[in-house]
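A brief tutorial aside. Many learners find it easier to grasp structure tokens once they have seen a single protein encoded end to end. The record that follows does exactly this for O-fucosyltransferase family protein. Read the sequence first, then the structure, and try to relate runs of similar tokens to stretches of the chain.
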Amino acid sequence: MAKRKASPPAAVRRRLGGAGASAVGWALRVATSIVAWTLLLHLFTFLGIPRPTLPVARPSCLGGRNSSAAAEAVAAAGEAAHLAPPALRPRRLYKSNGYLLVSCNGGLNQMRAAICDMVTVARYLNLTMVIPELDKQSFWADPSDFGDIFDVNHFIDSLRDEVKIVKELPQKFSEKVPLSMQPISWSSEKYYLRQILPLVRKHKVVRFSKTDSRLANNGLPLKLQKLRCHVNYNALRFTPSIVALGNKMVSVLRRTGSFIVLHLRYEMDMLAFSGCTHGCSDEETEELTRMRYAYPWWKEKEIDSDKKRLEGLCPLTPGETTLVLKALGFPRDTRIYIASGEIYGGEKRLAVLKTEFPNIVRKEMLLSDDELRPFQKHSTQMAALDYLVSVASDVFIPSNDGNMAKVVEGHRRFTGFHKTIQLDRKRLVELIDLFEDQELSWEEFSVAVKELHMGRMSQPTRRRVIPGQPKEEDYFYANPHECLGPAKKRRERLKHIEI
């Protein structure tokens, strides 16, 4: 008996079923590819390997419909990888010896370095660290909390493979009065192991009431030095709102080409604290002296301003800075961003600098009033904006060697040894005085200034170590050479890393 032909509906169903299975299989392959690419990119990021470039889909020579589908699949994979959140590092599991509370003191960059040190101490002693408290009592009286400056969740997640960080003490410790103390400055890891760990084990909760410079520059195990860098350059990320405004400022500055940042630390608090009054009137000198005596924690009261200036311990005045910039060869149309708070003496004191370099800008000229309003009366947040612009600049020139100057210099070294001109203020004031006394011609002065700074532009070098004099030796965060490689290799590697 002859076989009956399949009815058309059945044949159609078989064809549709085959096509459906094929479509499902194709969709599964695309989905698998997306997941594989995403996991692969996260793996490359975790290992610090440059990300592979996704292939660009080329038109099929046959012009079939699968060619456009493949292009869409590749694009979808790239978009998924771009939008996916970063992979979390595996959590480090350890028995905690207790809780560490830290109350940071000082301005933004002093606190930033201190946070790096305290995380390192917590890791070394196997402690649980509570999100740091920021200074609200110093001259700046900024009420900002840690979360107003830094991305809290990123901070915790970035360090989960090193140390456990919590946002607050557990309830069972909330009514317990912690042991409060100030660690000895410039201490080695052995001090914390022998002196601090027994106290934490006994009291369970310890608060460090001061955190500035409490860890040595040198002599620490390499792993701890690298952890300090990891905290500073990876874990301490500013909040999205600060980053967005900082990026906008850099973008506006870049529209007209390169720019330099002048960290002109000629502010009232610095002059009062240091006792540097060169170029100030008698009335201004009296005002600065009164301010110095008004702050009991500023220990040095009687200061010889002239002697201190000749020792290179005073910030350059705006007028002195103008002479140095001209002598170094910066042209008149150089775009200069002034990173500072309110300059003591206001526009009058900046007049000489603006006359010689009229292309000067400040954050108030780059951002609208509405954009700046949330940051006003929050000097630490304003300093964070200056920090971002300073790190991104083509040249960074600080007029003194305070915390911002040092920490920014180190960050610029880390991102590829970008030029920071470290002014030799002791020799500069000698040259400036000789020039102003007409004992040097302009040409002689300019040549001397250039020669003086040929080796002071952030070239790769090792820190200067002075045993027993940690204040006099090179600061770890200004040149964390343990975390740096050859300049060329670092630039190539950092092309693929978002700092």
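Self-check: The chain has two domains: 99-235, 240-494. If you spotted this yourself, you are ready for the next section.
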